[in-house]
Amino acid sequence: MIKKVKVPSPGESITEVEISTWFVKNGDYVSKGQTIAEIDSDKATLEISAEENGVISLMIKKGEKIRVGDVLCIIDTSKKRIKEFHNKQENKTKEKKEFHSGNAKILSPASKKILKEKNIPIESVKGTGKNGRITKADCVFLEKKTYFPSDGRHITMYRSKTTTPLSSLRKKLSERLVSIKNETATLTTFNEVDMQEIFLIRRKYKEIFKEKHGVHLGFMSFFTLSCVRALKIYPDVNAMISGEEKINFEYCDISIAISGPKGLMVPVIRNAEHLSFRGIEQEINKFSTKIQNGTISIDEMTGGTFTITNGGVFGSMLSTPIINPPQSAILGMHKIMERPVVINGSIEIRPIMYLALSYDHRIIDGRESVGFLKTVKESIENPIKFLMKESEKNIPKILEL
Asked: What pLDDT is attached to residue 241?
């Protein structure tokens, strides 16, 4: 029986995708539910799984474009074909043992010709084909260079490079980044924030918070709520330009940049103005899980009104983040470093983070951008006053909501 695997729709309005990765080769045996490929659209990456056990035949090459609904591959589920596959595998195992016992390198005709023309010893090439076979791809970019250091020696090196076509997702990202530069008047303003109060709160309440709510109390919930407060005070930062009109949003849909196996994803926390610390941390935990296992949807990554990105998790001390269109501003968090600062006339060591706000100057003036950052700084440095309300028992609401 032949089972056809068709291209599913990655999202509304998407009609064409690109095969970014094959995790199997033509003629491989696949199991039901096994991930066999990844497809890219201009909005997201989607995994494709085998629908039955059997031997797979690939209909499309990596990098080729294919329409939604077209046949991606076929799976032969017949007992005869599966038996042929296993017999073939047994023969390959025997050949592999013989190959290693002979300790010889196998060359394809094309690779043999290239090595001869470039006068490159076979011992210097690592084969990536089956059973260590040296293929054309292993040789085509090899470059022979001889160096003559001042000590009189001569050193010969064989250098290689790999050329890989950009995926549809990366191409679309490149186009968007260039369009942002050309279509917006982007400026970045900076400030620094003392993280000591956040450190003290987390040290005191993080275990209780985790036990009560089932999620960690991270920095992102503090910054999200600080941004929500600042967006209410400076509403033009929570706006966008559409043609010759300005659209101000009465809600705060905060896009949070989260790193995953497929790169940086930016899911949206909807109506963050109505969420508590618990709600925000639970949303972030939910999105992080989906990004790690590849189940995040396009709808969950579209429609934000403001973005927060944290380069500090990678060690970045300072950067100028790029606006996430059609939004008008993005806040960049950075690595926390202990620095000497003056507090009430005395020098103290405090955990300091640099903040960066990139904004579209067509809609946001310097006064608003600087004021926005100062408001975030104010909230972070005095979170109990600006982000929380204390109950009669003098316990921050952070533990109750």
From this structure: 92
